[in-house]
């Protein structure tokens, strides 16, 4: 009897062990399935009801640079070949498109995707830019960088300087092609080739809105196919634009794709429709085999922008600022010139040249604030800037217009007073 009891206890313990192992095995299968087939990022509900695969994403107003939607938009991440929008715009601004560019051994050794150039081969800079932006050739990027900057490292300095000038404080360029890289900077800090979704979108806004070479940039990135040769007509290069989104959505304007093992799939692009201009940036938008998820995220963000935002001229929306009196101290105030103030007013010429356009969502608050000193000290010249009007959406400053004095007020001193008395005697 005792022996049978022991056998039963052993059998029960064995069954409990088997059940526990089976449960663990089921849990492992579920986790593997979710990781391989479901992409856990897609299961979470995003703010504003948007579901995105991208680990970082941003929708930006292409006119003002204001962030309209963000998901980890300030998180620093590798950006792969979206880097090449900076390489392209610097080459357009600093280079001569008819220059012949010679391939170095460094350029010839670049990994795929590449043209397969050989050391010493020469190509026109403008052809290399098409290869850079349409096919994303890594060797073309190095050739361009060395031609413009002298060395790849010096070109990276130019890239970082431009990023800093644009207000992109969380961006660090090491390579001109976006290949994953790390280095120690001059302060001893370890850096990786990286940006944020917000910074990347801001660079694209510059490329298509603010750069003196914006038209050239758009022409290159909108081209579907291009064929060119080296300077000796021995090596033919055929390029096809890999920005499939150009034909996916009405209004798609420009864009650049990217992929590395460290960055995942990335994309930066712009869309213009119904007078609205949007820029998006997507970082870490899944890994193989989910190559097309970036197009899903792009469509979601652009559709959200088109549906919810309207282009508004803040100046017209908030109305003209009426002239405001500002007291002037220390000026001449005779009987015939008794006003001790000037009127701070808008300048008509400036108004005809400025457009304070922004994309605004229903319910967002807009306001303007007049900035003027409590008093001015003479002398004050007619047309002198004496203040400004600042325009806001919520608490974000969107633009500023100057206010100018409507007349001159001379300073009261002995010589001015004497001159004024003599002028009265002449009368």
Characterise the protein shown here.
The chain has about 425 residues and is an alpha+beta fold. About 35% of the residues lie in helices and about 25% in strands. It has 12 helices and 19 strands. The strands form 6 sheets. It has a 6-stranded mixed beta sheet. A 5-stranded antiparallel beta sheet has the order 2-1-11-10-9, sandwiched between helices. Strand 5 and strand 6 form a beta hairpin. Helix 4 packs across helix 5 (about 140-150) and helix 7 packs across helix 8. The longest helix is centred in the N-terminal third of the chain and has 37 residues, at about 1-40.
Annotation keywords:
six-stranded mixed β-sheet, elongated, alpha+beta
List the helices and strands and how they pair.
Blueprint: H1 2-38, E1 56-61, E2 67-71, H2 84-94, E3 100-102, H3 105-108, E4 122-124, H4 125-135, H5 138-149, H6 152-165, E5 182-184, E6 190-192, H7 197-210, H8 214-222, E7 225-229, E8 236-240, E9 252-260, E10 264-273, E11 276-283, H9 293-308, E12 309-313, H10 314-318, E13 324-329, E14 341-345, H11 348-353, E15 357-361, E16 366-371, E17 375-377, E18 385-393, E19 396-405, H12 414-426
Parallel strand pairs: 13-17
Antiparallel strand pairs: 1-2, 1-11, 3-4, 5-6, 7-8, 9-10, 10-11, 12-15, 13-14, 14-19, 16-18, 18-19
Mean pLDDT: 88
| CA distance, first residue to last residue | 139 Å
Tally of helical segments:
12
Number of strands: 19
Overall structural class, as computed from helix and strand content, comes to alpha+beta
Please give the share of residues in helix.
Answer: 25-40%
Which spans of ≥5 residues are poorly predicted at pLDDT below 50?
24-45
Largest sheet: 6 strands, mixed
What share of residues are in beta strands?
A: 25-35%
Main sheet: strand order: 16-18-19-14-13-17
Q: What radius of gyration results from the CA coordinates?
A: 31 Å
Shape: elongated
């Amino acid at each position: 009897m005792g022996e049978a009891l022991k056998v039963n206890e052993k059998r029960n313990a064995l069954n409990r062990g088997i059940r526990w192992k089976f449960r663990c095995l089921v849990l492992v299968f579920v986790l593997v399935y979710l990781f391989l087939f479901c992409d856990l990022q897609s299961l979470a509900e995003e703010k504003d009801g948007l579901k995105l695969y991208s680990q970082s994403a941003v929708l930006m107003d292409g006119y003002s640079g204001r962030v309209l939607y963000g998901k980890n938009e300030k998180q620093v991440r590798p950006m792969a070949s979206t880097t090449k929008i900076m390489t392209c715009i610097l080459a357009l601004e600093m280079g001569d498109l008819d220059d012949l560019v010679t391939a170095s051994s460094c350029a010839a050794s670049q990994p795929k995707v590449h043209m397969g150039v050989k050391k010493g081969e020469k190509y026109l800079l403008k052809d290399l830019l098409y290869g850079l932006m349409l096919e994303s050739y890594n060797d073309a990027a190095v050739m361009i960088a060395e031609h413009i900057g002298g060395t790849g490292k010096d070109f990276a300095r130019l890239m970082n300087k431009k990023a800093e000038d644009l207000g992109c404080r969380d961006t660090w360029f090491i390579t001109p092609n976006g290949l994953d890289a790390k280095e120690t900077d001059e302060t001893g800090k370890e850096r990786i080739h990286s940006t944020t979704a917000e910074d990347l979108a801001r660079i694209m806004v510059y490329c298509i809105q603010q750069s003196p070479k914006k038209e050239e940039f758009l022409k290159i990135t909108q081209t579907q196919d291009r064929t060119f040769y080296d300077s000796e007509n021995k090596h033919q290069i055929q390029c096809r634009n890999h920005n499939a989104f150009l034909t996916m959505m009405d209004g798609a304007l420009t864009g650049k794709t990217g992929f590395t093992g460290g960055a995942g799939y990335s994309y930066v692009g712009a869309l213009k429709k119904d007078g609205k201009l949007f820029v998006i940036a997507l970082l870490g938008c899944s890994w193989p085999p989910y190559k097309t998820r970036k197009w899903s995220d792009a469509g979601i963000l652009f559709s959200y922008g088109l549906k919810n935002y309207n282009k508004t001229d803040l100046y017209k929306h908030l109305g003209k600022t009426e002239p405001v009196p500002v007291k002037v101290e220390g000026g001449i105030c005779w009987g015939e010139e008794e006003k001790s103030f000037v009127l701070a007013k808008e300048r008509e010429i400036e108004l005809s040249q400025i457009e304070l356009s922004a994309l605004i969502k229903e319910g967002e608050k807009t306001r303007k604030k007049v900035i003027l000193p409590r008093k001015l000290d003479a002398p004050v010249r007619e047309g002198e800037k004496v203040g400004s009007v600042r325009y806001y959406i919520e608490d974000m400053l969107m633009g500023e217009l100057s206010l100018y004095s409507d007349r001159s007020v001379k300073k009261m001193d002995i010589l001015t007073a004497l001159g004024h008395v003599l002028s009265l005697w002449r009368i």
